[in-house]
Amino acid sequence: MTWEPRPVPPVSEVDEAAEYWKAASNGELVVPECNDCGFVHFYPRQICPECLSNDVSFVEAEGTGTIYSFSISQQAAGWPEDALPLIYATVELEEGPRMVTNIVDVDPDDVEIGDPVEVMFESTEEADIAIPVFTPLE
Asked: What is the sign of the dihedral through the CA atoms of 70, 110, 7 and 93?
């Protein structure tokens, strides 16, 4: 069990990550890809960090990857007693970029670097915003 509800990220229609959050609310993981050099990157931004082009589009990601690194945060005061510790991780997506996220639905003792994972989306306090998190592939 993870602790809920998750806080809502600040999202507005003019935010350069608005398309990312809209896709997440529809259960899709998208990543920015430069139309000039083809570089796929993360976090969502409209400037390519490789060639500095502003010709960037969002493309659908496979939603799978591997755990590149992780850290476990023990329960804070006020959490439900049956809540598992939070697992903060950097996941390397199949498309190449790495994203900071949470690993969910797994005992922290069973998590290892290199484990294959897949995306899932956790709801937030707002009905139209979901947070991409990852769970081990079975």
From this structure: positive
